[in-house]
């Protein structure tokens, strides 16, 4: 008959293999944060720039299925519960988005734009262009759950 220690080890191993252990730990951290968060203490006003930055990060987190991390960000930053409309972000950030880029978070396109060094757009003030074509090393065609396990 298996000992309690052996059962705990098997359970932990099973939960790790399924990816559930990480989710459980993240959920516990989010719940602890919510329990400790002092809502009676007013937060500083959320600036327009921080609102946009937080939204880009939230879009990235949700795309990669980091739901609990996104929920902690939303709560801690005082970000609106309802995400900002993507088209609003595109307009506010002056991003030129092609059809392929719409399937990935805006942050991927922004980073790709600067990693390329704007080689294609040599004029100053050129707008970042968000495109899947800019991500040759990322396998963005696979669902996020498959990308996360690699």
Automatic annotation (TrEMBL):
Spell out the PROSITE patterns in the cross-references.
Answer: LISH (PS50896)
Taxonomy, superkingdom = Eukaryota
Q: FGFR1 oncogene partner (FOP) N-terminal dimerisation domain: from which residue to which, for each copy?
A: 43-113
Just give the chief location class.
cytoplasm
- What Pfam families does this protein map onto? FOP_dimer
> What are the record keywords, sorted?
Cell projection, Cilium biogenesis/degradation, Cytoplasm, Cytoskeleton
Q: Where in the cell is it found?
A: Cytoplasm, Cytoskeleton, Cilium basal body; Cytoplasm, Cytoskeleton, Microtubule organizing center, Centrosome, Centriolar satellite; Cytoplasmic granule
The family database entries (InterPro entries) matched by this protein are listed as:
FOP_dimerisation-dom_N (IPR018993), LisH (IPR006594)
GO-annotated cellular components: centriolar satellite; ciliary basal body; motile cilium
Does the keyword RNA-binding belong to this entry?
no
Please cite one Gene Ontology biological process associated with this protein.
cilium assembly
Family, according to the entry, reads as follows: Belongs to the CEP43 family.
| Function, in words | Involved in the biogenesis of cilia. Required for the recruitment of PLK1 to centrosomes and S phase progression.
This chain's protein is named Centrosomal protein 20
Q: Give the originating organism.
A: Penelope pileata
């Amino acid at each position: 008959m298996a000992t309690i220690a052996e059962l705990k080890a098997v359970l932990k191993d099973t939960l790790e293999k399924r990816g559930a252990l990480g989710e459980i730990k993240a959920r516990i951290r989010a719940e602890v944060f919510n329990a400790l968060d002092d809502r009676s203490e007013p937060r500083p006003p959320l600036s327009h720039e921080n609102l946009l930055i937080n939204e880009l990060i939230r879009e990235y987190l949700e795309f990669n299925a980091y739901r609990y991390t996104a929920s902690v960000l939303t709560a801690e930053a005082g970000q609106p519960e309802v995400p900002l409309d993507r088209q609003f972000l595109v307009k506010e950030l002056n991003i030129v988005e092609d059809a392929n880029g719409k399937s990935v978070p805006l942050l991927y396109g922004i980073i790709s734009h600067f990693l390329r060094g704007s080689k294609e757009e040599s004029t100053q003030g050129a707008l970042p262009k968000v495109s899947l074509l800019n991500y040759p090393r990322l396998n963005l065609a696979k669902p996020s759950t498959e990308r996360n396990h690699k």
